[in-house]
Design a protein that fits this description.
Blueprint lengths: L10 E5 L4 H12 L3 E5 L3 H11 L5 E3 L7 H15 L4 E4 L14 H30 L2 E6 L11 H20 L5 E8 L2 E2 L8 H4 L12 E2 H11 L11 E4 L13
Parallel strand pairs: 1-2, 1-4, 2-3, 4-5, 5-6, 6-9, 7-8
Helix pairs in contact: 1-7, 3-4, 4-5
The structure holds NADP nicotinamide-adenine-dinucleotide phosphate.
The site of NADP nicotinamide-adenine-dinucleotide phosphate (NAP) has 30 residues, from α1, α2 and α4.
Length: 256
């Protein structure tokens, strides 16, 4: 799809890179020549993923909970020690659960905001201060969700992802003087491991209500991320690219 050496000599971090969309982004980048660090909380699953990915190229791993600022610092120091620089950050780690808004507990609300908004922020600021600002170069891609309208059934993640959408736009302006490009990818419903936590009934008939009549594939999201981090996209910053088969423009995918 892309030139074989597209990402040669690039050092990349994919949070949540042990599964699903993050795994496919890591695999793509390894195929195109990057050294890829993956991180997530579950060390044994992370190690297993890194072992598999190592067949494609130079894949390294360190467990890190993005909500824990000390672990995020340690991850930055680890990358500094082993590679001396970071070129590209993909903030992919995240998760949520479906719930009627009125039934979300304070703990449930805080868990999703902490993960999807605060965690993404910790990683972004830490990696920018360690690497991108001193280097005066960097590329950040934030995986959010389809928040084009509202997010009925998952108000917590809608709010968190809208926060990341806006911080991406703000940082694209504030950090342009440091040579940092930052964009967001907003996936619709993607056939990925993350969908397993949803009740199967919730997804019944969803494809029929998407204009392209199917769910998205993790590889399609990975190819979009690869384009955004490549030399083909150097004049794109502060953008949110929807990859949703047209879902945001028409119809209601879930029953209320
Ligand atoms: N699939 C979809 O339809 C869809 C649509 C819109 C947005 N998204 C978003 O896209 C991203 C990837 O989704 P996916 O479907 O590929 O889901 P997934 O397979 O569940 O991937 C989420 C990854 O994030 C890691 N993670 C979660 N919380 C973390 C934390 N606090 N610190 C570090 N790592 C953490 C998980 O690993 P550990 O458990 O080991 O930490 C896992 O590897 C997620 O942010 C998801 O919400 C997905």
């Amino acid at each position: 799809m892309f030139a074989q050496n597209l990402l040669k000599d690039k050092i990349l971090l994919v949070t949540g890179g042990r599964s699903g969309i993050g795994y496919n982004i890591a695999a793509n980048c390894l195929r195109y020549g990057a050294t890829v660090y993956i991180s997530s909380r579950n060390n044994s699953k992370l190690e297993a993923a890194a072992t598999e990915l190592s067949e494609l190229g130079d894949c390294r791993f360190l467990s890190c909970d993005i909500r824990n600022i000390h672990q995020v610092e340690t991850l930055a120091e680890y990358i500094q020690k082993h590679s001396g620089k970071l070129d590209i950050l993909v903030n992919n780690a995240g998760g949520q659960f479906p719930s009627a808004a009125e039934e979300i507990s304070p703990n449930g609300w805080n868990a999703v905001i902490n993960n999807n908004l605060n965690g993404t922020w910790h990683v972004t600021q830490t990696m920018a201060k360690h690497f991108f600002i001193p280097q005066t170069s960097g590329n950040i891609i934030n995986i959010i969700a389809n928040i084009y309208r509202g997010f009925p059934g998952m108000v917590h993640t809608g709010a968190a992802r809208a926060g990341v959408d806006n911080l991406s736009k703000t940082l694209a302006v504030e950090w342009s003087k440091y040579g940092i490009n930052i964009n967001a990818i907003a996936p619709g419903v993607i056939r990925s491991t993350g969908l397993k936590q949803y009740p199967p009934d919730l997804l019944k008939g969803v494809s029929d209500r998407i204009p392209l009549k199917r769910l998205g594939e993790t590889q399609e999201v990975a190819d979009l991320a690869t384009f955004l981090m490549s030399p083909m996209a150097t004049y794109i910053t502060g953008e949110t690219v929807y990859i949703d088969g047209g879902q945001r423009l028409w119809g209601d995918i879930f029953e209320l």
